[in-house]
């Protein structure tokens, strides 16, 4: 106690001295000043915040465009099932069986997010018979899950339910109702389910080409959704290109892109492809701590989804104050020219094979002497799946592009350890090809 009192008294004495007061005041101001500096300047110097703040004003029109999207209506689900039913009938199949994967989303509005795959079969069944003409979808499901299924499906969509008890064999329950039938199973139905159906008396056939291709022709409602999500996606790249500066890392850019998606009302992507310089020679490389050097390309390949429909866009860009070498410019222009050829081949779609579209674009790159460096197919179908039928590759010479198909057209040149360039837009096949990104890249400075 005595000691403490002594210390207090000494402190009071000290504080009475003007010199000590000034020193204390000075120290306090210094600490305060440093903290404010750190908060105001160092915080906003976070490269992700800086990029985001720079890019986000150009995204201003995206949230209202996404908010106004119109979901697929009940009638369209019924139309889909009617087309399925008549295709099944034409192939002498009694019913189509699907698990909660893309097809169940397409035909019955139940997504795999809403009902995950489980060891207990939950199957959607659409019949080919004339009476229901496909408008009804039947769900085979565990009895205890019925309230959940009803809540999920709602009272629309003409759903009917067939339930099985925990101690029953679900396939037997189905067989008791349907009797001997020929079932077409969706491409994603798991093997144990296919076997279960077969071992309990059903005849099983695999997914046919004609049934598979029903989903490839997009309706106007689907095209509208895909326009919105692809324009939002290219807007992210267009907004961020003028903000790029050497020094940012691939991971910073990837994180910023996800924040811009979220600003637009769209989900983040698990792994946006953001690759700088020679790393872009890996077509599906993952973003790293690598930072952008002077005068080097950034390849940005991103996509997100809206109401289950996907976008997919790639641009190979340069910060505005950076320069290309002659070779960089040459390669960029060859890839662009190849893309032009590929896109043009998607117009006038009468009997154009998928292989020929790939070939026409590939020829441009080959004739320029870079044929060995275009190492993947030209593109893929885009829709409820990020990569879906049909594929634009040279083996696909028996499939023809059809009006209503949506393809990515994404030629690239990849020279290992040196450079990678890819340009990608989603294109709707029509009399004239329609860009889902509104317009194409003009240069590495105008994505
Ligand atoms: C489809 O499902 C979504 C999400 O569960 C729901 O909001 C929508 O109303 C459903 N559409 C129809 C036609 O039932
Ligand atoms: C598939 O559809 C085409 C065009 O409608 C038709 O010509 C062909 O016979 C169908 N294939 C089968 C196996 O039914
Ligand atoms: C496609 O080509 C065939 C044969 O040349 C022609 O009869 C048909 O009218 C064409 N269809 C369209 C939509 O151009
Ligand atoms: C299509 O490809 C197959 C196998 O690659 C080949 O045998 C066939 O000749 C090709 N057909 C045409 C019309 O090019």
Compose a concise summary of this entry.
Helix content is 40%, strand content 16%. The chain has 447 residues and is α+β, with helices and mostly antiparallel strands.
Spans of at least 5 consecutive residues with low confidence: none
Mean pLDDT, nearest integer?
92
Q: Give the strand tally.
A: 18
Characterize the biggest β-sheet.
6 strands, mixed
The percent of residues in helical segments reads 40-55%
Q: How far is it from the N-terminal to the C-terminal residue, by CA? A: 75 Å
Give the cofactors and ligands. 2-acetamido-2-deoxy-beta-D-glucopyranose
Helix-and-strand structural type: alpha+beta
Number of helices: 14
Radius of gyration: 29 Å
CATH fourth-tier homologous superfamily of the largest domain: Creatinase/methionine aminopeptidase superfamily
Explain what the structure shows.
- Its cofactor is Mn(2+).
- Residues 228-430 form the Peptidase M24 domain.
- GO terms for molecular function: hydrolase activity; metal ion binding.
- Belongs to the peptidase M24B family.
- This is X-Pro dipeptidase.
- The protein is of the alpha+beta class and 447 residues long.
- It folds into 2 domains: 92-207, Creatine Amidinohydrolase, Chain A, domain 1 (3-Layer(aba) Sandwich), CATH 3.40.350.10; 218-435, Creatinase/methionine aminopeptidase superfamily (Creatine Amidinohydrolase, Alpha-Beta Complex).
- The chain has 14 helices and 18 strands.
- The protein has helices at residues 2-16, 18-44, 47-55, 62-67, 74-90, 102-108, 146-153, 170-178, 191-199, 209-212, 220-240, 250-263, 326-344, 354-367, and strands at residues 95-98, 123-127, 137-142, 159-164, 182-185, 203-205, 273-276, 298-302, 305-306, 309-310, 313-317, 379-381, 388-392, 406-409, 412-415, 419-422, 425-428, 434-435.
- It has a 6-stranded mixed sheet with strand order 4-3-2-1-5-6, with helices on both faces.
- Helix 3 crosses helix 12 (250-263) and helix 13 (326-344) runs antiparallel to helix 14 (354-367).
- The longest helix is centred in the first third of the chain and has 27 residues, at 18-44.
- The radius of gyration is 29 Å and the shape is flat.
- It starts with a helix and ends in a 12-residue tail after the last strand.
- The relative contact order is 0.10.
- The mean pLDDT is 92.
- Bound molecules: 2-acetamido-2-deoxy-beta-D-glucopyranose (4 copies).
- One 2-acetamido-2-deoxy-beta-D-glucopyranose binds at residues 71, 73-74, 77, 109, 154, 156-157.
């Amino acid at each position: 106690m005595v000691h403490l009192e002594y210390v207090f008294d000494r402190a009071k004495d000290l504080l009475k001295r003007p010199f000590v007061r000034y020193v204390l005041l000075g120290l306090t101001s210094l600490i305060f000043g440093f903290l404010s500096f750190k908060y105001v300047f160092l915080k906003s110097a976070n490269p992700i915040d800086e990029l985001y703040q720079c890019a986000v004003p150009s995204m201003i029109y995206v949230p209202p465009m996404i908010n106004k999207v119109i979901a697929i209506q009940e009638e369209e689900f019924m139309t889909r099932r009617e087309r399925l039913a008549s295709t099944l009938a034409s192939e002498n199949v009694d019913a189509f069986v699907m698990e909660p994967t893309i097809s169940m989303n397409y035909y019955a509005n139940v997504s795999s997010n809403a009902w995950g795959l489980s060891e207990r079969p939950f199957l959607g069944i659409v019949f080919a018979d004339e009476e229901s003409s496909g408008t009804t979808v039947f769900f085979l499901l565990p009895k205890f899950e019925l309230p959940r299924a009803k809540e999920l499906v709602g009272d629309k969509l003409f759903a009917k339910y067939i339930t099985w008890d925990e101690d029953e064999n679900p396939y037997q329950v189905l067989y008791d109702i349907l009797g001997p039938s020929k079932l077409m199973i969706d491409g994603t139905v798991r093997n144990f389910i296919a076997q279960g159906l077969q071992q309990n008396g059903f005849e099983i056939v695999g997914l046919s080409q004609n049934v598979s291709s029903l989903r490839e022709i997009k309706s106007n409602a689907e095209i509208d959704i895909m326009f919105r999500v692809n324009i939002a996606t290219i807007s992210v790249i267009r907004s961020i290109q003028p903000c790029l500066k050497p020094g940012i890392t691939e991971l910073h850019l990837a994180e910023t892109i996800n924040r811009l998606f979220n600003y637009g009302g769209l989900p983040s992507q698990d792994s946006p492809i953001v690759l700088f310089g020679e790393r872009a020679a890996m077509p599906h490389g993952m973003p790293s701590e690598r930072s952008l050097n002077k005068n080097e390309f950034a390849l940005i390949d991103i996509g997100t989804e809206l109401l289950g429909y996907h976008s997919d866009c790639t641009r190979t860009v340069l910060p505005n104050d950076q320069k290309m070498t002659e070779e960089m410019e040459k390669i960029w222009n060859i890839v662009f020219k190849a893309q032009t050829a590929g896109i043009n081949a998607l117009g006038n779609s009468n009997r154009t094979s998928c292989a020929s579209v790939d070939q026409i674009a590939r020829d441009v790159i080959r004739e320029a002497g870079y044929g060995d460096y275009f190492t993947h197919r030209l593109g893929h179908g885009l829709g409820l799946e990020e990569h879906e039928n049909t594929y634009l590759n040279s083996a696909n010479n028996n499939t023809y592009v059809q009006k209503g198909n949506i393809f990515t057209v994404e030629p690239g040149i990849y020279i290992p350890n040196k450079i990678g360039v890819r340009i990608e837009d989603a294109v709707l096949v029509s009399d004239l090809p329609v860009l889902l990104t509104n317009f194409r890249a003009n240069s590495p400075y105008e994505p």
